[in-house]
Amino acid sequence: MLELYHNDMSSCAQKVRTALAEKGLEWTGHHLDLRAGDTLTPDYLKLNPNGVVPTLIDNDFVLIESTVINEYIDDAYPDHPLRPDDPRARAKMRLWTKKLDEGLHTHTATISAAIAFRHQQIDRPPEELARILAAMPDVAKRERRKDLIENGVHSQLFPDAIRAWDKTLGDMEDALGSSTWLAGEEFSLADIAYSPYLTRWEHLQLVGLVDKRPRLQDWFARIRSRDSYRIGLADWFSDKYLPLMEEKGLEVWPEVKKLL
Ligand SMILES: N[C@@H](CCC(=O)N[C@@H](CS)C(=O)NCC(=O)O)C(=O)O
Questions:
Q1: SS3 of 61, please?
Q2: 71 CB within 6 A, ligand 1
Q3: Are 2-76 and 87-259 equal in CATH topology?
Q4: pLDDT tens digits along 101-151
Q5: Is 32 touching ligand 1 by the criterion CB < 6 Å?
Q6: How many CB atoms lie within 10 A of CB 125?
Q7: Which of 4, 164, 188, 212 is most buried (CB neighbours < 10 A)?
Q8: Nearest Cα to 17, choosing from 242, 209, 236, 205?
Q9: Taking each helix axis from N to C terminus, what angle separates 189-203 and 214-224, rounded to the nearest 10 degrees?
Q10: Is the pTM of this model over 0.90?
């Protein structure tokens, strides 16, 4: 039996739900409220010492890290392969997913917190917020979170995060000039990995990042037409987040535009 600890709007959980949907696999979910600190309880930290979602359990095998989880799913359940056979295309796929793991995902967390998610924390009683922050196992991440809650888009982390994503979206536009999908002619884990992030920019109304890039728009439209996008992402979109993301995103767009 497959069990997934996840969250409705988490980009890393979206990646894994999409891979499971592409494979047609059934799973049982444990939905965690990230703002309430559900990933920081002693019991959950035993499963995922980083205090984040997703965590996959396949019978007695506990696995963390969304990129590793998706490769595991493809290894353990080989029907409908999600990695190209061609070694070069497979290497390209890994370069795309590596980029997310080596900083782009953190930049996404910076942008999302600075614009919108800080507002879900800011009004908490200070002692409750202090307790949640103190439970975060990663000190650097905790300090970043504090800074973003306090300074929002005026955090010094924000411009780099926006520019890193603008550069990556440009790289995606270029790659899609020579192949149908990010890593070649086959839909792969690279396409699955990036679709939550395009979704995030749309939810934050940062459409200016994408609408100057026609191939990227076309790629995203093709992703969205797949059943796995509906099952892995759209069916989980939450009204607890969407109006806030839209309102705050529109508010800061003029500042974001200046950084591009
Ligand atoms: N590298 C990890 C990153 C996981 C991660 O950052 N998850 C976020 C949601 S996308 C999380 O659980 N954050 C907890 C929080 O915001 O407190 C992965 O790919 O699984």
A1: strand
A2: no
A3: no
A4: 999 999 999 999 999 999 999 988 999 999 999 999 899 999 999 999 999
A5: no
A6: 8
A7: 188
A8: 236
A9: 100
A10: yes
The interaxial angle of helices 242-259 and 189-203, nearest 10 deg, is: 90
The distance in angstroms from the start CA to the end CA of the chain is: 46
User: Is the CB of residue 39 below 6 angstroms from any atom belonging to ligand 1?
Assistant: yes
Alpha-carbon span 79 to 19, nearest angstrom: 12
Kindly give the number of the ligand 1 atom that is closest to the alpha carbon of 40: 17
CA-angle at 111, arms to 106 and 113, nearest 5°:
90
Helix (H, G, I), strand (E, B) or coil at 156: coil
Pocket lining: 12 vs ligand 1, CB cutoff 6 Å = yes
Name the CATH superfamily for 2-76. Glutaredoxin (3.40.30.10)
Is the Cβ–Cβ distance between 144 and 110 less than 8 Å? yes
What distance in angstroms lies between residue 12's CA and the mean position of ligand 1's atoms? Answer: 6
52 Cα to the center of ligand 1, angstroms:
4
